[in-house]
Amino acid sequence: MTGGAVGRVVQSRNKRYREGDFVHGVLGWQEWVVSDGRGLHKVDPKLGPISTALGVLGMPGLTAYFGLFEVGEIKAGETVFITGAAGAVGSIAGQLARIAGCRVTGSAGSAEKIRWMRGELGFDAAFDYKTTLDYRAALSEACPRGVDCFFDNTGGPQSDAAILSLAHRGRVVICGQIAHYNAEKLETGPRLLFNLIIRRARIEGFLVLDYADRFAQALARMAEWVKDGRLKYRETVVDGIENAPAAFIGMMRGENIGKQLVRIAPE
Amino acid sequence: MTGGAVGRVVQSRNKRYREGDFVHGVLGWQEWVVSDGRGLHKVDPKLGPISTALGVLGMPGLTAYFGLFEVGEIKAGETVFITGAAGAVGSIAGQLARIAGCRVTGSAGSAEKIRWMRGELGFDAAFDYKTTLDYRAALSEACPRGVDCFFDNTGGPQSDAAILSLAHRGRVVICGQIAHYNAEKLETGPRLLFNLIIRRARIEGFLVLDYADRFAQALARMAEWVKDGRLKYRETVVDGIENAPAAFIGMMRGENIGKQLVRIAPE
Q1: Quick one: how far is CA A137 from the chain centroid?
Q2: Which residues in chain B touch residue A159, judged by CB atoms under 8 angstroms apart?
Q3: Strand-pair category, A202-205 with B202-205
């Protein structure tokens, strides 16, 4: 199990990094690390607090950005639905869709998450998937003209409902499938795809790393939005590496809001 | 239940059609029909025998053409897999992919169909889905570098295997889902889509009518290929409208090869 981390360089014999620089990379779940510099990226502390390099101004934010704008091809006036919408990626995706002029609906798994999405994040509608009985009815009410872009972080029955709720030429962006990560055996495949014919719709998977050559441009835009208050983020922070396993399990259970972080040293 | 038909105009008070013209349209399963001309299209007998307006030079051929070239975006050197590959659409799709310089594998449901595909139609590989036990193994052998474009006419377990066999940036063209047309209740949705993330792949549905403004251009190209022998077609013809119901049921059972036709009057 690896994990992205932001760290400070305390000593360097690599010309690209100096003492005091902040770097991001898959540094491991540890307090100190020795690196030859490969796979590291400098973090610009002027863009925002360094923790944002793990969230809104890091992979989660970039995943939301390229998933919506490039894969999902969202346009102003469209309807966007997001599962896992209170998570690190989903909470940014919802706000980016709002910034782009879309109507946004999200689902998440607690009343507190729903309140945050409807309130601070500005979602137009939201439902709690743990207490909602009929996802298709919920989507039909929240998205009466159908879903133009479905940004899927979860898979499972919510996805089934969203695929059946697609508008003409709808797009499904497969970002995550957390409902299936622990599947013990290979599950059955698509059985609802006839609706893709009816709707001339598509389902597409992507990995954000494919857009690496445009990260800097995207981060500059998002940093502006964070600074002017249009793009909000939340972090769930636990202190001490000894609490990392519990935080990870909590995340898989959906206990975090926004990006789950472990602070292992003062900033 | 409607059906496309080609007929000859025996009398006309519509300026667009003269006695003796051949027309195509959803004319019903009947020997004579009165029409106000809406939804009819002239059939050019110079392009080929008039029956081809129901097959290779009609909706099935156009569906294969736009599905592969526009939705599937096939390129020379790619690997294409087609289910229902001995049917009216699939048999054309396989040959069009060959004409485009692709390596083509198809599946169908009888030894005779497989022989036709491997022989006259020039498929590089083919397997009988009724006697093949492990579709993923069959695809792995036939498409060792993965499937770049999966043209799906069937759905079902063959589709599951093909989605798991996609190459990087693979495309799934949802043309038909015959395995699911008779589903008595709403079936479960996609459960294998994590592979779309890994492969950066997409699944897209389409209806050929969306390309209507380019039909003439496509038909002209395909008519050339038919004339020069690069594009072959086969028809399964029964005589007499009284045999239409049996022919229809036979088609649903996969008994036809190529386009299933009912001849209700001499040409």
Answers
A1: 25
A2: 189-190, 193
A3: antiparallel
Q: Please check whether residue B210 touches A, CB under 8 A.
A: yes
Distance CA(B13)–CA(A262), nearest Å, equals: 81
B210 phi, psi to nearest 5 deg: -65, -15
- As given in the structure block, the two tokens for residue B133 are 């036990």
SS3 A72: coil
A26 shares contact with chain B (CB less than 8 Å): no
Instruction: Please give the radius of gyration of chain A, using alpha carbons only, rounded to the nearest integer.
Output: 19
Q: Which residues contact B222 (CB under 8 A, 6 or more apart)?
A: B56, B57, B61, B65, B231
| pLDDT, tens digit (0-9, with 9 covering 90-100), for A78-116 | 999 999 999 999 999 999 999 999 999 999 999 999 999
Among chain B residues, CA nearest to A174: B197
What is the value of ipTM here, to two decimals? 0.76
CB contact under 8 A, B189 and A186: no
Range scoring the smallest mean pLDDT among A138-147, B107-116, B201-210 = B201-210
In chain B, which residues have their Cβ closer than 8 Å to the Cβ of A175? 197
Q: Is B77 on the interface with A (CB under 8 A)?
A: no
Is the CB of residue B205 less than 8 Å away from at least one CB of chain A? yes
Chain centroid to Cα B70, Å, comes to 15
* Set of chain A residues whose Cβ sits within 8 Å of the Cβ of B208: none
Which A-chain residues 116-155 have CB contacts (< 8 A) with chain B? 152, 155
State residue B8's pLDDT score.
Answer: 93
Q: What is the pLDDT of residues B11-30, one digit of tens each?
A: 999 999 999 999 999 888 88
Best mutation target, A66, A89, A188, A208, to test chain B (most B CBs within 10 A): A188
Instruction: Answer whether B177's CB lies under 8 Å from B150's CB.
Output: no
| Alpha helices by DSSP H, chain A | 59-66, 88-99, 111-118, 135-142, 157-164, 194-199, 215-227, 244-252
Q: Is B26 on the interface with A (CB under 8 A)?
A: no
